Amino acid sequence: LCSSKSYYRSLSLFLFLRSVVFSRFCSPCDIKELFCTATGLSRNTTISLLDSTGELFQNVLTQVAEQFSRAFKINELKTEVTNRLAMLEKRVELEGMKVVEIEKCRSDIKKLREEMASRNNRSVTSLSFLDDNKKLTPRRDVPSYPKYMLSQQTIDALRKPTFDVWLWESNEMLSCLEHMYHDLGLVKDFNINPITLKRWLLCIHDNYRNNPFHNFRHCFCVTQMMYSMICLCNLQEKFTQVDILILMTAAVCHDLDHPGYNNTYQINARTELAVRYNDISPLENHHCAVAFQIFSQSDCNIFANFDPEAFKQIRQGTITLILATDMARHGEILDSFKQKVDNFDFTNEEHVTCLKMVLIKCCDISNEVRPMEVAEPWVDCLLEEYFMQSDREKVEGLPVAPFMDREKVTKPTAQIGFIKFVLIPMFETVMKLFPQIEEVMVQPLRESRDRYEELKQIDDAMNEVSSDHFFYYYYYYYFLTGISYFLLIIPIGAEKEE
Ligand SMILES: [Zn+2]
């Protein structure tokens, strides 16, 4: 097989090969080992292979061996390459999305700059009482409130007046509101930008104050009750989607920037709001104005894709509904509805508008429709806000309504007249159109009335004071006559005290 001769301390082997068959798993090391074994050399000997013309043969051999080895790994390699390609593809896609986001940010910033510039140029005549005007600007471009994945259980519960409104933090309420707009098909039907919807809701949240009662949770309650009524009364079959959008949006906006002191205080204290709106529903006018200030910012304008005519319709509808929440107009609005309800015509615009006004009124004062455990804490919140006002009125020497006076009011007296003379008559009228609300909404009201009457009897027995019957009659009277209350009641109250 071979001969050998000494050459610079290295050994030359001359192989005369006819054919060599290597195993398919053979590596260069294996081949080298084979030679070493065949020639009896130690395994770490350096071996050079030369072909018959004296050219170096080793590299070729090594390459062949490696190619063999690679060939068998090709499938493995294929998988790896495919994986890498997929990864690269994904990265390219993600980078592409980032580019889109960056582009969007850029255009938003540009718009914001232009808006700021144009605002600086404008005179300061518009709504200067918004001393915290800066609140109108959202804090960041893309709203980053954590996305809450609402469970199916929450989604189902959200459709009912029994929903426990106390369980949720602001972020969760925001997610719920967002869900309602999607669920009612408003986002899809009106091509609302979902990011704008988030930003708008966040801005709404920031523009409710932390009052004991008129706060963001109250906004959430009213909107959630509206959503419940839309579901319960199948309003989507009776109303257009524009009407549904108006109902929901008016509910969300209806108490924006409420200062915690009612219209009577505003008027008696001659506040800037009362002066601005000539004592005509100063608060409700203000809520509305703030709502449309927010819409005037392009990044919060959920109506951005509307044509001018549609926007006009939404604006008018929303204003009408928010202004209808002034309780001074309760009698007027309910009477007008009563005249229509027996021959109600869903194709008559005037009828529909009147019904929408009554619906937002129902939702606004619907706490007692909720289960007792949910409703009762709201009475404490309302009284806290009332007492805050009456204390201030006393300090400022302004008239104090008895139902706000911590010396005179109790929870049962506050609620009985209101449930009996305001809530039940209104809900019973709506019941004529939507009988399904009797069990779900009117019955809880009756139960609440009975419960508070029992509580009052206990209170009376404890105090042996039954002299205050006059009190809640006037309390309800106040709601029916609104501002004229003080002209009529104060002298009677004074007489009674003598
Ligand atoms: Zn309200």
TrEMBL record:
Zn(2+) 1 binds at H218, H254, D255, D364. It comes from the Eukaryota. The active site is at H214. One of its GO terms (biological process) is signal transduction. SMART domains: HDc. Its EC number is 3.1.4.-. SUPFAM superfamilies: HD-domain/PDEase-like. The chain crosses the membrane at residues 475-494. It catalyses: 3',5'-cyclic GMP + H2O = GMP + H(+). Residues 138-459 form the PDEase domain. Binds 2 divalent metal cations per subunit. Site 1 may preferentially bind zinc ions, while site 2 has a preference for magnesium and/or manganese ions. Its cofactor is a divalent metal cation. The keyword Hydrolase applies. InterPro entries: HD/PDEase_dom (IPR003607), PDEase (IPR023088), PDEase_catalytic_dom (IPR002073), PDEase_catalytic_dom_sf (IPR036971), PDEase_CS (IPR023174). GO terms for molecular function: 3',5'-cyclic-GMP phosphodiesterase activity; metal ion binding. PANTHER family: CYCLIC NUCLEOTIDE PHOSPHODIESTERASE (PTHR11347). Specifically hydrolyzes the second messenger cGMP, which is a key regulator of many important physiological processes. Highly specific: compared to other members of the cyclic nucleotide phosphodiesterase family, has the highest affinity and selectivity for cGMP. Specifically regulates natriuretic-peptide-dependent cGMP signaling in heart, acting as a regulator of cardiac hypertrophy in myocytes and muscle. Does not regulate nitric oxide-dependent cGMP in heart. This is Phosphodiesterase. It comes from Sinocyclocheilus rhinocerous. The lineage of its organism: Eukaryota, Metazoa, Chordata, Craniata, Vertebrata. The gene is pde9aa.
